[in-house]
Every structure is written in structure tokens, then in C-alpha cells.
Structures
1.
Amino acid sequence: MFRGAQSGNVDAKGRLKVSSLVQRRLQEQYESGEVFITSLDGVTVSVFPIKEWAAVESRLADKSTAGNQAADGAMKNKILFQANRYGAENTLDNQGRFLVPAVLRDSAGMRGEVKIQWQSNHMVVLSAANYEAAAAANELSGDELGRAADYGF
């Protein structure tokens, strides 16, 4: 959808303002500003275009064919519980904003400047402080930098 990290802002009313690039790409790729805003840990905010979230829900509803089906079903239920605990559907408004659910704003410290990255099928949003902590935690070691060549980097 987009590459790199985008800056955003969460205003006093809890609305996440995204860049015009993000707005445009959502409309181009998904023909909709409808999203599901959620988290599994209360810190990392995930914004799924509604079509992508529907695909996740579908995978979570599928019956397992291998391994321990009961354990797999329990795990899927835990994922859905946490996603719904923090989550809410929302729609991009005319000014490029989504309302972040209050419970998630509080737990994730979503106020002021935030950083947004596209990962696979959704946007990841972190407060500025949490973004810097995540950046430090995700630094590549020398071996990992060497392995990056295997992926064409």
C-alpha cells in the first residue's frame, strides 16, 4: 500500500489523522475508507481495511485440519477476544481521520505524534515513544544484516 514510515497525529478527540498518500491508497486499493482498528497487546495499534479484516476473520473461523484442533480453536478465540476487546469499526472521514477506540487510545498512549507503517495486510500505528522502543528492539545484528542479502536487500 505504501512504503516507509509515515507520520500521523492523534488529536485531542482521539482521531488519527493519516497523510493524503495513505488516504489515496486506501481509496485506490480498497475503494473504501472503512477499517477495523484493533490491537492484540494494547500497545501496537493495527488498522485493517475492512476487506482485509474480513479475510482475517475468515481464517480464524476455519476449522483446523492438523495438530491439536482444540488448542488451535482456543488460540483463535483468544485472538478474536483481544481484537474485539480493543477494536472498533470506523470510516475515514473527509479530513483523513479515524477515531481510535478510547480503550486503545489509553492503553497505547495514542496522543500527539504517531508513526504508521504498512505491514502485509494492515497499518501498524505506534505512539512516537513506542515507535522508538520498537526501532531499538528491531535493530538487525551483523548476522541478520548478512542474511538480508538472501532476501535481495
Note: Residues 69-86 form the longest helix (18 residues).
2.
Amino acid sequence: MPWIKCPRCEMNYIQEDEKYCKVCKREMKGEKTREEVEICTVCNEHPVMPGKDVCLMCYKEMSSHDTDNETDGNITVDVGIDPVSTMEEIVPDISDDISNGEYHEMETDLSLQEMADEEADEDDEEDE
């Protein structure tokens, strides 16, 4: 049997011998929609607490072991990096690899302002 769209919602597919899709049937009967329950990421057994990704039992166990690693329900892991680091710490120092003259030459080759000026000059030449 071929599949057709539900005539009521026009989103879900049904077989030709059915009148409405399962979602529409539930809505017409007045049943509440089923919400999927998230399972705890630690124990994989119990439903999670609202706004958290762990269940109440795991949350209590984690907070009793180590309250320093708990902030607003999100577990943090210390990876040895200062959380208030700046990009300057990450950017490598290129002055050792490239001489000043070579760096200045590369900088002028990559100048966006210079490229814009050249394009403007070319446009002026075409207009004349």
C-alpha cells in the first residue's frame, strides 16, 4: 500500500486505509503528547533532574564527594588551563621565524586597503 500525507496535519505519512496519523488521533482524543525522558549520563538508569544532565542520586553522590567541581549543575574538569586566558597567550610569536624585511613585504602584499585602492583605480580607468 502506498503512503499518503495525513489530511489533517499534512506532515505525517499514513497508509491509504487509515484516516489520520497517530499524532492527530492522539490530539483529537485529547491525550497529552508524550515527552521523551532524558536518562542520566552517569548511571544511564534514572531520569535527569530539570535543567541538569544527571539524576538526583548521581548529583547527590557527586556533590558529597567533591563540591569544588560543581557549578550550577555543570560538572567542570580541571585541564590545567587558566580560565581567564587571553588570545595573546595563544598567538605564536612569528618574529623569530621571519625577518623584519620579509614580514613587511608580506604585510604590504596582503594589504586590503591597497587592494581596494587598486580596484578603485581600475574602475576609474574603465570609466574613462
Note: The helical segments are 22-29, 56-65, 87-90, 100-109, 112-127.
3.
Amino acid sequence: MIAKGSFEVKLGQLQQYNDNSKAKLGRMSLDKEFSGDLIAIGKGEMLSSFGDVEGSAGYVAIEEIVGTLSGKKGTFVLQHNATMTHGKQEMNVIVVPDSGTGKLKGISGKMNIIIENGKHFYEFEYNIE
């Protein structure tokens, strides 16, 4: 099945463990509000690193999603892994296995995040056993 919609995201700066300025590390909170086929709130944390060349970076994140997906209420967790090389982005966002609860128990899938004109959209290909 495929769910589509948009989301708003707010990032908050968190204190990082390694505060060595040469490390170029960052730690952020994620607060999202999804609309469309997924009506939910997402909360998580992101760790990032920036390269010496502008447009090169990487991040990982874990995000809990709480809400309703195509009429089914529950929760699940997304795992993010992304890199950007000279502005070219490669992203992998998957459901953590066995993280679904409620009517979303048994969910698996992959979310594609699309950013157009500063707005965020998602296409979520998923299956519920």
C-alpha cells in the first residue's frame, strides 16, 4: 500500500556529547506533524555531521510516529540514514522491524521524503501483516 501527504517539521538544537568544534557534529530534536493518508505526530532525535565541502553532510535519526495511517490507529518507529555529497542527496527511511503497535502492529515499509520549494512531502510504501 502507498500513503501520501505532507508534513511540517521543526528542528531544535540539543546539547551534543562531542562538543569539539573540529568534529562538525550536530544533535537536533525532530517535531513533525503529518497530514494526508498519515495523520500523526512524529518525535525524534537526529545526529549529523558536516563535511569540509559545502553541500556534503550525513545524518541518522530515530523517530516515533503516533497517529492514524489510512484509518488504522497506532504507533511505529522510523529509522533515517542519509548522506549528501556536493548537494546530491541519498536517503533511506525505513520502519524499524516489530515497532508497530495497535492497529499498526506488523507494519513494515519505506518512506520517501520529497522537498519541493521548501515544503515537505512523503510517499510511504508499507505493508501490515
Note: The first strand starts at residue 2 and ends at 13.
